[in-house]
Amino acid sequence: MLNVERLTVSYGESIVLKDIQLQVPDGAIVALIGRNGVGKTTLLKSIMGLLHIKEGKVILAGEDITTYSTDERARRGIGYVPQGRDIFPYLTVYENLVVGLDKRQSFMLEEVLNLFPMLKGLLSRMGGNLSGGQQQQLAIARALVREPRVLLFDEPTEGIQPSVVIEIERVIKSINKEKGVSVLLVEQYLDFALRIADYLYVMEKGQIVLQGETREIKSQSLKEYLVI
């Protein structure tokens, strides 16, 4: 579904990602893990078209989208739940969900709210008045109403209480299995990544240093790349 081919990204003269090769197969959940500052968020932003790609390609469902704008990539089926949520604090929950929504996708609103029943009672509340866990659920719901084929998550469990982490895990598994949405998940919480992902990539200093099916990679090997 999503292929990143020999991707190199730099900030000025400083190379942040070098020769990245990564695949998210159709219907799979793939996790990308690594220490802070190794380039994981940069990779997601590059896939979304938020950063300039120096070399390499981004392929979605066989189509080269490397030169496409961010909004065109979204229309083609890439959804993005950024680190820190980035909801609109001065819009209501309802307004956050429908802003920029294509009328053809409006039927998805009720379906998505069924995944997050907590949000149904908060539709008139300002986004900035929600708890961190509620904001994270809103950010995921906002991405889902646009019916993505691939959904990128950047640290969805960061700063979230355990009960909400369980809810987020349930939703990700549900949209993957029932809707067939492919998922690329950047995550620091190793146990969460191991529970949810089919395949793992480990990044260090802007490069992929380890990869494999989740059930085949030893957790001790992974921890070596995560310990500061």
Automatic annotation (TrEMBL):
Sequence ranges assigned to domain ABC transporter in this UniProt record: 2-228
Keyword terms of this UniProt record: Amino-acid transport, ATP-binding, Nucleotide-binding, Transport
GO BP terms, alphabetized: L-amino acid transport
InterPro entries assigned: AAA+_ATPase, ABC_transporter-like_ATP-bd, ABC_transptr_urea_ATP-bd_UrtE, BCAA_Transport_ATP-bd_LivF, P-loop_NTPase
Gene3D superfamilies according to UniProt: P-loop containing nucleotide triphosphate hydrolases
CDD domains with a match to the protein in the record: ABC_TM1139_LivF_branched
Recorded GO MF terms: ATP binding; ATP hydrolysis activity; branched-chain amino acid transmembrane transporter activity
Any Pfam family: ABC_tran
Family to which the UniProt record says this protein belongs: Belongs to the ABC transporter superfamily.
NCBIfam families: urea_trans_UrtE (TIGR03410)
Protein name from the UniProt record: Urea ABC transporter ATP-binding subunit UrtE
Gene expressing this chain: urtE
